[in-house]
Structures are given as structure tokens and as C-alpha cells.
Design a protein that fits this description.
The chain is of the alpha+beta class. It contains 15 helices and 17 strands. The longest helix has 25 residues. It starts with a strand and ends with a strand. The structure holds coenzyme A (COA). The site of coenzyme A (COA) has 19 residues, from helix 2 and helix 6.
Length: 464
Amino acid sequence: MAAGIDDIAIYIPRLYIDAADFAKARGLDPEKLQKGLGVSQMAIVDTNQDPACLAANACLQIMQKNKLSPEDIGRLYVSTESSFDESKAMNSYVIGMLEQVYGQGAFEHCGGVETKFACVSGSYALYDNTNWIRAGEAEGKHALVVVSDIAKYDMGSSGEMTQGAGAVVMLLNDEPRLLTFDPKVTATSIKDEYDFYRPFGKETPIVHGQYSNLLYMIQVRKALEIYKKKALASGLMKLEPGETILDHMDYLNMHLPYSNMGKKALAYLVRHEWRQLPRWKKIIHDMGIPEPVPKDPRGTIESVLGDEEFMAKDHEFTKLFTKTREFQEVYESKLASSLIASKMIGNLYTASLYLGFRSCLEFEYQKGIDLNGKRVGFGSYGSGSSAMVFSGTIQPEYEEIVKNMNLEAELAPRRKLTLQEYETLHENKLSPEEPMVHTKREFILVDVNTTTESRGERRYIFNE
Ligand code: COA
């Protein structure tokens, strides 16, 4: 049985900070954010929003748009790394909010959990729900998978340049209009690591940013190797001499902690794939420098990072490689459109890969390209760490959904924060009754209980 993404919706908070204002306040060159990282604006949550609100607002939107009733939904999963309870799952809060609109008990039949594995957990949730549908367990019902996060880093840290917030919801069923997942090719890799983590009770993560970037690329590459074996064994792809698996993917959507990370990851994967092919000789010849090799042939992450001479040379080589005509062609045709939304919104942790997918659809369609039958590859990464590589095929009915996508219009009502306002929000100095903007027809957080017997209970309303 086929299964995949029928529709996709996003909810982005109504506040943002501008990268140039931010850079000025922190004494940084604005070019570092805008050109170096590919960050132009970062979405920020208001005092009366938490990741559950973002998720519920996205869910309501997709249900109303598709005229779905709660009876149509068999599963609702929330994937997040911004969890605020160690036990109560975030989907229960989301269901509580949705029932304020659809009636108490309306989702009683609906199953689901909150999933956690840094930024990759949404991909696991998608995979599990796809298999629920493939197994025939859905009995005609749909699954909602919501990825929702607030990427908040310590003030003054280097991670502060890569913040953002938002939720993406995907409606899954057995007759998807957008994308069918390719069966029997999903590949994973996993390793116990401390590249990025958030210990109990800490609001912001502990981040080893450069280490995490490298680990992301290594882990995704490992998963891609497994994907390759599966794609060839299952007959999904057949390689002619001189071809790579990437030639058989029309688009590549990568995890995007910031938009330029997508480009870095693509360059890494492309180098790895092209190295064995005749085309590589010509590229190296045209570049005029040899590809650097680490001193330690085992190439472990520790040995690579410790090899400063190699790291410097490799950095220089990558910069040159990304300027070659061959790489530029791949970048422009397979990746660039997926990065546009990330530049305008910032880091969404679990949701950033899927915001990229949505961005890819909208901006490739705007180019006038017929997307029917195009294969989309996904490179998902979660710190801690695990990667997942999988793919899907765009369906003939995609236009029904994609023609109405308009990111700019969706973001239009948002307000730019001054740096002072941003810092006040960052330090949690205001209560939910003191929001920066008043929204209508959205779920908002009203209060968080502080009494001993009910500490942590959250109250939400639908703001009519
Ligand atoms: N003009 C143009 N580009 C500039 C610049 C300037 N004035 N100054 C620096 N840059 C470029 C750098 O060359 C670099 O580009 P490159 O990666 O292509 O080499 C880029 O801007 C970033 O600079 P860098 O010095 O590497 O930044 P940093 O070390 O201060 O921080 C991160 C970058 C990404 C490591 C940091 O923001 C971070 O840790 N973010 C969190 C990421 C994370 O949480 N990941 C895991 C979970 S998703």
C-alpha cells in the first residue's frame, strides 16, 4: 500500500529579529549572518506561546483547510526537542487545545506519542506513521505528524545567531496528493555523542557547534551509504557506469540548523559520491589543487578534528569546490529553493527539514517546473546522534496543494522586534498576559500553574 504526505502546513510566530540589527547589537559583521550562515531573519515566540501552541495552531490550520473532522484522524504525533514536561506528552496538550474548537472528547479515539531525538525525531515519527498506513492499520484514517520547536540558545553564545521557532504539520494517508515515500529504502545511522544536548531543567542547549556540523555530515553520509545499498537492491534505482545515487534524486532536502548548513552538507555528500567517478578527475584538474587527505587514514571524527592542517586545507578546498560550475548546477537545481524559507525564519530544529521541503515545493513550482514524478531525497540529522536518509516521489495531484503556497503572505503579519524587546523576551521577563502582539483565532498560553499540588499545569485558550 502506498503512503505519504497528502498536505503540509506551517505555523510561524508573529515576531522576528532582523539579522542586521542582531549583528550590530552583538558587534558582529552582518555579512557573517547573512552571507556566512544564510540567516536574514529569526522567528521568535511571544510570551503567550510555547511549542504546543505552535503545533496546535498548525494542526488546526491543516484540518480546517482540508475540512477534516477529528473522526478522520487516527494518530497525532508531536516531535520536539523543546519539551516542557518529562512525562506528559506534548500531543496531549495539542489535543486539549484542538478539543476547545472541535468539542471535548472529539479526539478520544486518536493515538499518538511525543517523540524525541533532537532534530531527527520527526523523521522517525513520519516513518512509523507511514508504516502504520502501509500495514493497513489506519482503516482509512489519516495521521498528523507535527514537528514543533523553539530553537533558543544562550545570549551571547555563537548559537544565538542560529535561532528560530515554528511548527510544520504533515497530513499522511494512503492516497497522498503531495509525495509518496519510496518503500524499503529508509536508512538510519546512530552513535552515542554529546555534540548538542539539553540536560533536565536547562532551557537552552549545550552546543559544540563545529563538532556537531561535522558529525551531521558524517552520520548522514553513513545513512546515505545504507540508502544506496537498499535503493539498488530493491530496484528503485539502477546505476549506469559513471553515475551516482545523487543523479537519481531530483531534489535533496537537508536538515537546516541554518540555511548555509544545507549547502555545506550537500558539498560533503557530493564530494563523497563523485570522488570515485571519472567526472572527479576533471573537477580536480580545473580546480588546480588536490583534494586534501587526513593524516589518520581511519578518518574518525576526533582524528579529523584534531588534524588542524587537514581541517584548514579541507575548508579551503570545500570553498573552491562549491564555486565550481559542476557543484553550482547541483546546488541550484536540487537544493537552493529549499533554503529560502530557512533564511527568513531561522532554525526550527525538528521542523527545519520539513520547512525546507515546503520551501522547495513552493519555489520550484514558481520556476514553472513540472514537479510530477520528481524524486525528493531527505537527509535528516539529530544530535546525540542519529541520521536518516529516505526519499519520496511527487504525486500527480501535487499542484492542487502547491499552487496555493505563499510563504511571503503567510509571514506578512509578523512584527520586527527591537533588540531590547528581544532580550526582554529571551530572559523570560514578561508573563503570558503581557504579549508583544495580540493575535486572533489562534491558540495561546494563558498561564502555567505554580502551586505545589498542580505545578506545571498549563492553561490555553483559543483566542476568538
Ligand atoms: N562575512 C562573510 N562570511 C563570514 C564572515 C563575514 N564577516 N565571518 C564569518 N563568515 C563565515 C565563515 O567563513 C563561516 O562560513 P563557512 O562555514 O563556509 O566557513 C560562517 O560564516 C560561520 O562562521 P564561523 O566562524 O564558522 O561561525 P561560528 O563558529 O561563530 O558559529 C555555528 C557558527 C553554526 C557553529 C554556531 O552558530 C552554532 O553553534 N550554532 C548552533 C548550531 C547547532 O545547534 N547545531 C546542532 C543542532 S541543529
